[in-house]
Amino acid sequence: MIQSVNPVSGEAISTYDKHSFSDVDIIINLCAQSQKNWAKEDFDRRSALMLKVSAILRSQTDRFARMITLEMGKPIKQSHAEVMKCAKVCDYYAEHASAFLANEKVQTEASDSYIAYRPLGVVLAIMPWNFPFWQVFRFAAPALMAGNGALLKHASNVTGSALMIEQVFKEAGFPEHLFRTIILAGKETATVISHKLVKAVTLTGSVSAGKAVAEKAGSEIKKSVLELGGSDPYIILEDANLENAADICVNSRTINSGQSCIAAKRFIVVKEVKQRFEALFVDKMKAKVMGDPLSEQTDIGPQATPSLRDELHAQVTGSIEMGAKCLLGGEIPEQTGSWYPPTVLTNVSKGMPAYEEELFGPVAAIIEATDEADAIRIANDSVFGLGAAVFTGNSERGKRIAEEEIEAGCCFVNEMVQSDPRLPFGGIGASGYGRELSYAGIREFTNIKTVYVK
User: Fold this and answer.
1) pLDDT for 417
2) Tell me: the pLDDT tens digits for 1-54?
3) Of 18, 35, 64, 15, whose CA–CA distance to 182 is shortest?
């Protein structure tokens, strides 16, 4: 049995029967059969069905958002935004998939030579709990529009969301079995990766999970895309608009109650403005409302599980013991649920958990830099490389640092890091490999085929 638990009350929401391995084998075979026919459908047919998915998401946003909030504690206004973003990615690929995957002529000595993009087959998606709808649709919209079949192995604590998503595709009229949810424990997923009809795998999750999936996929010689953790640096330079920078930095650090791979994690501030930025930052963090995630007034809900909350607190206390100073928060509230308050640590330095590790919750680490060069050095002093941001009054300076100096997959200037269907998304280093979204994302799970006619 798999159980989903409300992180506010600690009470069970629902229990679900796991699939047996024989069940999974049947599901995979049915998905593969459906995919063979789906690959023959033209883009007009695929687009029409994807637009129906978008319409369902928009018409039933309240229902889907409530499930997200109940299962993992996201503030309800953010859950609504998540569902609407899913609708947008469906619209985007419905409109652009045909152009992204059109044959590309290449001039050679042949009478005809070109590049064709053909679907791989059944793709397995191993998805996390923190954006239970968005992470799935970010994969599913391009994968299905490319002609693939989709298997979803979701995080156990958001199984209700997983089954809702499967139902959306059914309601929209997609071929039966083309998108299926499989209910298994995480440790059982390796068996699915090794199935002969599963042609590729994508995972969004922890570094440890990514290593395990990459190892298994590699041993089977199957394509994989990994979007793993991040410890995103936000550099605040001396010429930045500090009020604006503090607003953006606090919003980025607290979105999804701090449980986002691309949330701001490390705030690297040049010495001459550190004191002023710190004061603004703390005041704005204090103003964030922690409370009932079903309330529209709430900014920060509970952490998804007690174990994740406890791990976060251990990182905070460990950093304080090593010399960090706590300016705000840092104590577990005495109340039912997986709560952790907005927390600000300063005087963070190399070797501390807050410097070296990903803080997956509403905890900010402020690090002092002597100047621009030192700030860039600190930003790059990480195994991660997902997102980064630079705040400066000189946009040319910001573009230079973002493009040439920062080692990350997504670099923003005077704005928080965020995913956008129009732009490639992914990281380097311990943050993974491959890209999602844009034309790059839809081509990841295609056979980029050379056709040469003499």
Assistant:
1) 98
2) 899 999 999 999 999 999 999 999 999 999 999 999 999 999 999 999 999 999
3) 18
Length of the chain equals 454
Collect all residues with Cβ–Cβ distance below 8 Å to 221 and sequence separation of at least 6: none
Task: Choose, from 71, 82, 166, 227, the residue flagged as catalytic.
Answer: 227
Task: For residues 266 and 317, give the distance between their C-alpha atoms in angstroms, rounded to a whole number.
Answer: 17
Q: What is the mean pLDDT of the chain?
A: 97
Q: How far apart are CA 49 and CA 258, in angstroms?
A: 34
261 catalytic residue (yes or no) = yes
For the chain, what are the domain ranges? Answer: 2-229+428-453, 232-383+387-413
* pTM (2 d.p.): 0.97
Question: For residue range 272-284, what is the model confidence (pLDDT) as tens digits?
Answer: 999 999 999 999 9
Asked whether the predicted pLDDT for residue 186 surpasses 90, the reply is no
Token pair 């469906």 in the structure block, residue:
90
Q: Is the domain covering 2-229+428-453 a CATH 3.40.605.10 domain?
A: yes
The 232-236 sheet, strands edge to edge: 325-328, 343-346, 363-369, 264-270, 232-236, 387-391, 410-413
pLDDT over 90 (residue 187): no
The percent of residues in the chain predicted with pLDDT above 70, rounded, is: 100
**Where does 232-383+387-413 sit in CATH, by number?**
3.40.309.10
Contact between 285 and 364 under an 8 Å Cβ cutoff? The reply is yes
User: Comparing C-alpha atoms, which of 239, 211, 265 is closest to residue 393?
Assistant: 239
Say whether 227 is catalytic. Answer: yes
Joined together, the tokens standing for residue 174 give 């997609």
Q: What is the pLDDT of residue 185?
A: 87
Which of 31, 261, 410, 411 is catalytic? The answer is 261
